[in-house]
Amino acid sequence: MSFTTARRRALRITAALGATAVAALGAAGAAQAQGNFVIGDQNAVPGMHVTFWGAQWWKLNSLSGGSAPPSFKGFANEVAAAAPSCGESWTTDPGNSSDPPLAPLPPLIEVLVSSSIDKSGRTISGNVTAVALVATDPGYAPNPGHAGTGTVIAVGCTGHENGGGGPT
Question: Which of 137, 132, 139, 138 minimizes the C-alpha distance to 153?
Fold first, then answer.
């Protein structure tokens, strides 16, 4: 990613997530998310400790649209847009087949927020209702037995479908 592209993305994140996220990014250093981890919309609350990757993802994340399939481990390997925004969708393969990123993760990552996740055949798909900034904990590995966890810093909408959205 070029500096210009990264700067534009940082400006979109700033506009969507607001000053709280900018302060957090400034304190920890701007880190681009590695991939497209997902959390449930009911877990996307600033200050909440979340699991964005792991064998028990479907038990530890709450979605307003119902439970996620047990084979979803928290990583979306294909997102409809290059820069995910509200109203977009994503698809992935089950378990390790989703090809999650190598460890370690940056101290701050963006994660997708979904209210609905379904499975049809081998394909798992979901929606994007928001994008959250998460401060990661140590211990993640790309094996679902080594959960990826962290604390939600801010939640916002990077698209215009819901009016742009500010921090919550």
Answer: 132
Residue 136 contacts residue 101 (beta carbons within 8 Å): no
The Cα-based distances of 32 to 13, 28, 120, 152 in angstroms read 11, 12, 31, 16
Mean pLDDT in consecutive groups of 10 residues from the start of the chain, 168 residues: 38 50 46 72 98 97 98 93 85 89 94 97 96 96 95 81 42
Task: Confirm if 124 and 92 have CB atoms less than 8 A apart.
Answer: yes
Of 113, 41, 37, 45, give the one whose Cα is nearest residue 72.
37
C-alpha distances (whole Å) from 70 to each of 20, 26, 57 are 34, 37, 8
| pTM for the predicted model, two decimal places | 0.78
What is the rounded CA–CA span in Å between residue 44 and residue 65?
A: 14
Cα separation of 17 and 11, whole Å?
A: 10
Between CA 141 and CA 103 the distance in angstroms is 5
Contact 114, 120 (CB under 8 A): no
- Token reading at 98: 């989703």
CB 100 within 8 A of CB 115: no
* Alpha carbons 62 and 68: distance in angstroms, whole number: 8
| Of 166, 92, 94, nearest in space to 133 by CA | 166
